[in-house]
Amino acid sequence: MNALLEVRHATRRFAGLVAVNDVSFTLAPGEILGLIGPNGAGKTTLISLISGTLPPSQGEVFFQGEPITKVPAYRRARLGIGRTFQIMRPFPGLSVLDNVAVGALFGRGGGQPKLALAREQARACLDFVGLSRFVDQRADELGGPGRKRLELAKALAMQPKVLLCDEVMAGLNHVEIEEVIDVIRKVRDQGISVLVIEHVIKAIKSLSDRLLVLHHGEKIADGAPDDVLANATVIEAYLGRRRP
Amino acid sequence: MTPLRLALALAVVAVLAALPWFGSDLIIQFGINTLLLAVLAQGWNIIGGYTGYASFGNSVFYGLGSYGVAIAMVQWHLPFGVGLVFGVLLAVLFACTLGAAVLRLKGHYFAIATLALGQVMTAIVSNIPLAGQNIGLVLPPLNNDRLFYELSLGLLVLATLTIFWLTRSRFGFGLIAIRENEEGAAVMGVNTTLYKVLAFALSGLFSALAGGIHAYWITFLDPESAFDISLNVKMIIMAVFGGPGTILGPIVGAFSLSAISEFLSSEVTNLAGLFFGIVIVGAIVLMPRGLADIVRNVPKSGWRYFRQNIRAHRL
Questions:
Q1: Which of A44, A108, B18, B186 could form a disulfide with A80 if both were Cys (CB 3.0 to 4.6 A apart)?
Q2: pTM of the predicted model as reported, rounded to 2 decimal places
Q3: Cα gap A35→A42, rounded to integer Å
């Protein structure tokens, strides 16, 4: 199997709470995988296990066939795993351009050591996500939608092989969601695999090649979007049981 | 950097370098003290201003630098230069071993942990015969204040050039990213542990050199004064007053506060002790991001700038 990313039996406990329970899945090169589930299902925790900001309690993570479970977050970034944060983590005191330049300076393969060249790459990424008008602003002067795009641009500047998007569309209006979907499709067209957490079902259905559903930390469905959304267990998790 | 600014900077350095040939002995001595304080403020700027870790351990680096010179010269009869290198080695070794442990702590916890280091070092050094125990060491006197002045100035220039390089290098961007958001920096590929330790060591290098020069100049050294925590407080006040995380802010802070405190201690003696306390309170309430931030914002927003800061404190 030539999966780019593989998670095997990953479990993460926080004291008594099992946030992620024995979850396994794979991500193929150039695939867009949608990750959905009710609030508190463990979606963000799962992304943290992959990006390395949290160690798993049990289970393993493989990237390009190599185990990376013990590899620290910064080295996973250099291998080509980029992520965005649901609660955005811009570098508030830096300009929008320099926020993204950090991704280019470090990032995959150790990054671009020359600041001028890194800034050039950053400009291209900001252009790509539609933020080129704001390059010289401070990051904390951007509004919510701008910050979502900034998160994307920062991750893209790392030139990742896989992009983990944690709710990059939350709080956006319809037009903005369409634009972000467009950006993610273009990212995939460059050969980058994408894992997207999203609550807007309509958006994720049209975007994803495959859907994975988490509920109470467990994987309850994994397959083509139409099949998964018609699945009785998934409907029950989202809407509750139909009265007899 | 524009040619005009470069010329201006060179002119300032030239004037400062020429000062010992015109000024009185008193001015030269004041100059050495101020230049060394500015070096300490710049050293603190690297770990505190750029990396965002408010270190109270920099006076330990200063003390190790002092003792490096004193032990090498008094006990081993080696030249001053060798002593400086020895002191720097001690400080860097200390930064790497203890830094790896204490730099895991964040915010107040890091400050508190480093606060204890000075006390611990005083106790340890007071019991080492090689370091003269609690009596201290007396160095061979060298009556050449001009030399000490020029050495201190050269060190300040070196520290400032290093910080200038930080603002346009990958290493510096990594440090700033750590200050702004450490987890965000790590997932973007910044080796946060390594970078923090390197920043701590670089900060320690300059503090140790300042300590070494000061020890040879003063010719006397004891554990209490070498690891004095109030020196650390001073360097923080100066860096924060001038503008932490800026290239010139800590120098401006050190020069202006030294001048005012010197003036007060000679003119109105009983107010001088209060001075730094008033500066701390005033600076935190009115200008928490230093003079550099005032220069940037006050022309734009005027008095509103100070009112915003007061309001941000919810006083």
A1: A108
A2: 0.90
A3: 10
